[in-house]
Fold this sequence. Notes:
Low-confidence stretches of chain A: 1-13, 325-329
Radius of gyration of chain B: 22 Å
Largest sheet of chain A: 2 strands, antiparallel
Number of domains of chain A: 2
Order of helices and strands of chain B: HEHEHEHEEHHEHHEHEHEEHEHH
Order of helices and strands of chain A: HHHHHEEHHHHHHHHHH
Oligomer: heterodimer
Structural class of chain A: mainly alpha
Number of domains of chain B: 2
Mean pLDDT of chain A: 87
Distance between the termini of chain B: 51 Å
CATH topology of the largest domain in chain A: MetI-like fold
CATH class of the largest domain in chain B: Alpha Beta
Number of strands of chain A: 2
Number of helices of chain B: 13
Helix content of chain A: over 70%
Strand content of chain A: under 5%
Largest sheet of chain B: 8 strands, mixed
Strand order of the largest sheet of chain A: 1-2
Helix content of chain B: 40-55%
Number of helices of chain A: 15
Low-confidence stretches of chain B: none
CATH architecture of the largest domain in chain A: Orthogonal Bundle
Amino acid sequence: MATTTTTVPSAGPIAGSRSFLSRLRDGDEIARLVTFIFAGTVVIITVLLVYEFWRESYLPRHKFGFAFFVTSVWDPIFDKFGALPFIYGTVVTAGIALLLAVPLGIGAAIFLAELAPARVSDTLQFFIDLLAAVPSVIYGLLGVFIVIPVMRQYIQPALKSSLGFLPFFQGPAYGVGFLTAGIVLAIMVIPYIISVSREVLISVPRDQREAALALGSTRWESTWKVVLPFARTGIMGSIFLALARALGETMAVTMVIGNTPTISASLFSPGYSIAAVIANEFTEATGDLYLQSLIELGLVLFLLTFLLNGMARLLIVVTSQRGSEMGQA
Amino acid sequence: MKRLAPLFLAVLALVAIGVVQAALSINGAGATFPNPMYSKWFDDYHKKNSNIEINYQAIGSGGGIKQVTEGTVDFGATDGPMNDEQLKAFQDKHGFPILHFPTVLGADVPTYNISGVSGELNFTPEALAGIFLGKVTKWNDPLIAGANKGVNLPEADIVVVHRSDGSGTSYIWTDYLSKVSEEWKSKVGKGTSVNWPKGLGGKGNEGVAGLVKQTPNALGYVELIYAIQNKMPYGKVKNSSGEFIKADLASVTAAAAGAAKSMPDDFRVSITDAPGKTAYPVSSFTWLLIPSKFSDGSKRDAIKGFLKWMLTDGQNDVEALSYAKLPKEVASKEMKDLEKIQ
Lengths: 329, 342
């Protein structure tokens, strides 16, 4: 791409040689300024958001300090606030969701982009886009009326009898809990993963596939060894999107997680997530320390999203470096 | 765009008419529990007095107290009375006190789902406190079985369900448990959200009802109105006179009447576990929070006019919406208090 010569004048040196006035007349300067301001707003909003959260959470930050992150009592009556069970619930449910949704979503995307006839692919894509647009409260209702009873009556007893020796599948089967919330979240984020991954896979240049086929690889080998690695960054992007949605999802989670601040290895146990507790308690929260503790929880969620996204990005950098080294070897 | 222009003008005209007609607009915010009642009252009152428009935002009791203290709304509403600290904060900020006016009554009922048990169960205060503290864990515990002779209670674990969202319903329930159990009072306390020793949390009445209906051997609490409107089965609770009382509009009003004799002057009273043979023990007032001074005389008169109407004619609409109405003693005591608004 970089080596091809183009007839379009490149923006750099030629633009610089023209007078400011002529550029202004052509709209370049204005467009630059306007788009720069728009891009800058994103940064400003983020900074203001963090600043506001930071400022409004003064009381709990000074009263509890670091203990806020590592204690697990949440008692509005006796003014004791610890965020650990909420952090745990948020991370665990998002983790379960990705564990289930990533293989399913990417598998479906591969089928739609590489194997399915165009008409089937487009029709299915329509349904997937439809799923992505369903409001989360609908998924919550699906969880309440279908997933919870099925979990309690069939899946949890089955898991208990087959894998009950593991600490993850013990305790009473209420139907609600970490596992149920993770499953509902997985259902919610799968359309995102499929939709974005499919686009990315489709946009992998044809010559990449043809080159692989020309070298004698089978269709699957070209998909698995050439197309997928080529599209890796884009697919990771779809997973980020899914992770962000899973971490911040409020309505559907609060309807199925059981809303009990617990830390338990058992995925059957009811839990709580940060977004859910904020939505549940904010309206009726009286007392400054209580209110500000909820705001600090918001800050924690923000940082958590930031941190997990950063870690995932780091993972990409590391794996893509290793990938290119392997390619060279 | 052209097509939208007439529509836009029409909307503008409507807004303009609205502004002209509603010469006086009063804003309030607060509790969600009485919202259906308040909406109807404010609407009816506007129909009678077309120059007065009262807007109400059901943002929750906490928000109502906060906003009326900050002065962003003309009045507030709450399911739990303001505490001394909050009263002082209002007094310090404005230089005059805020007044509580009870409007209607609500109650909580225990609802359950036990396989093989269809009748009404009787609950003693000790049993309810024990269950919610996590000390009574089986349905056939003597504390429950003792009050339900002849009912075949299973030896199954009780799945406790409570509200996860901060709510007046939880305030009433925990206020009641605090009164009947010293241990609850010292360990958990009362509030719109508490640190529940046990149980699953459901969002809203519908969330609790859904969990109870779906989960075998579950016990939860919902608002009486919700239980009546959805025809849910619910149990009787033993009152302070030793009678098992089923909650209905009459028994809730009876609880308020029982408490009326010892009503403090500022109406901040809890009527859970109230005296009276027919009183249902898990009942509560809900309050409007009215500042005692208005700089705008027409607003003051409008609010006083509304309160007067609400305490007399307005009370006739209460039972149609399944709220329990104020006992006469309380309403007439409030009428006298209207003078305090200046």
